Give the backbone structure.
Amino acid sequence: MSNPFLALLGLPATAVGFALSTQIAALSWILSNKYGLDIHEVAFVWLAGPIAGIFGQVIVGLVSDNVWFMGGRRRPFIIIGGLVSAIAFLALPNISGISKITGITDIIIIASLIALFLDLSVNVTFNPARSIIADLTPEGKVRTSGYVWMQIISGFFGVFAYFLSMVFGNETLLYIAAVIVFLTAVFPILFIQEIKEQTEAQANDKEKFGVWQIFKEIYPLYGFLVFGVFSLFFHFFTEQFAVWHNPILITALAYSVIIGILIIIQGLKKQSNRNEFQKIMLAHSFTWVAFQSMFILSGFFIENQILPNINISNITANWFAESLTGVEQTAASSVGNMVSLGFFILNLIGAIFPLILQAIAKRIGRVKTYISALTFSAIGYFYIAYFSHVEIDFYIGMFLVGIGWSAVISIVFAIMSERVNPAKMGLYMGVFNLAVVLPQMMSNGVANVIKATGNYQLLYIFCGLLVSTSVIFWMFVKEPESSETKQSIPSAGH
C-alpha cells in the first residue's frame, strides 16, 4: 500500500484529533475565565465526554460492523460526526446567547449539553475513523504504518490548533475548528472506497456479542465505571457524599490493580488473545486517567504553581499573540497561552516521534517500544510535579510526556487490533475505547482531591504514578506474532 493512501486513511482521524486538541485548548479556559466556573465545575462539564463515549463508541462500533449505507460502513458515521462537531464548536463561544434564547440561566447545564453533543459527535467519528484503517490494511507492519501516518497527520493538525490558540485566542480557535473539522471529516472519506464484502463476512461470523457480553468483557474496568457513576451523584450531593469520595476513589483504583494482577497470573498459566486484550485494555486505562487529568486541569496548575513566580511581560507563550496581533496579554490569557504552548510541544513531539518509534519497533518490537515511550511520559510528569516552578520547566516536562503521547494514540491501536476478531473490528474498537472513556471519569476525582487540598502539585504526581502503573502492566503484554513474523512493508500502490 502506498504512503499517500495510508495518509488519506488517516484524515478522518485527523478531524477527531483537531477537535480534541481544540477542546483541550479552549474548553477549560473558556469555562473558567469567561463563565467563571471553578475546578470542580469544569471537571464536571468534562464528564460529558466519557458519558458520550460509553454509549457512542460501543453502539457505533457494533452498528458500523453490520450496516452498509451511503457507500460504506464507517463513512456515514464519520460524515455525521464531523457535521455535528462543527455545530458544537460554533455554539461554545455563544453560551450566553443560547442562555437568553432558551431561558436556561444555569451556565453549567448549557455548557454540559454543548459538551455532550460535541463529545457525542467526536465519539461517533472516533471509532469508525480508526476502524477503517484496520478494515483496509493487513495485519502487521502495514497496519502499524497506517496508524503511524494517522498520528503524524493528526499530530500536526493538533499542533496547528494550539498555535492558533496562542496567536488568535481560544474563541477564534473554536470558529476555525468548526471549518477544519467539517472539511477533514466529510471530504476525505468520499475518496476512500470501503470493501463491502467485509460486511458479508461479518454476517456469517458466529461470534455473538450482546450488551451482557460487552459488560462481562469490560470487568477489568468496573472500578472506573463505579467511580464515574459516583462522580455524577457527587456533583449534586457534595456535602452528603463528601465522606465517601476518597474511600470510593481508592477502592476503585485498588480494584483495578488487583484485577490486573489476577489477569496477569491467568495469562502466565494460559495465553490467549482474550487475556492479552484485557491486559492491554487495563494498562491503557491507567494511562488515560493521567492524560485526561492533565488536559483538563493543567491551566489550574499553571495559574497556581507557575504564574505567581513569573512576570507576565516575560512570558514566552505571549510572544506569538503580541507579535502577530499586537494584543496585550492579561493574566488569564497568559495562562491559556502557556497551556497552548505546552500542548503545542506535546503534539509536535506526538506528530514527529511515530516515525522514530516505528523504526525502533522494527528492531525490538512494538510492545517494548511502547513501554519505553510511556516511561518518558512518567518521567515528564514527575519532572513537572517537582521541578516546574517557571515556564520553561513546564515545557521540558511536556516534551518528555509527548514521547509517550506519540505512542499512546498510534502504536497501541495496532497492537490491540491483532488480538481481536477482525470481523468485529468496529465493536472491539468500541469496547477497547471504553478503556479511554471510563478512566476519563476518574479525572473528576483527581480534581476533587486537588480542590479539597489546595495542592495543585498533586495533579502531576498522580499522573506520574498512574502512567508508571500502566508501564508495569504493559511489561506483561506479549508481542503479537504478526509484528515478529512479517518483515517488510509492501511498497505497492493501492
Observations:
- The CA atoms of residues 22 and 238 lie 30 Å apart.
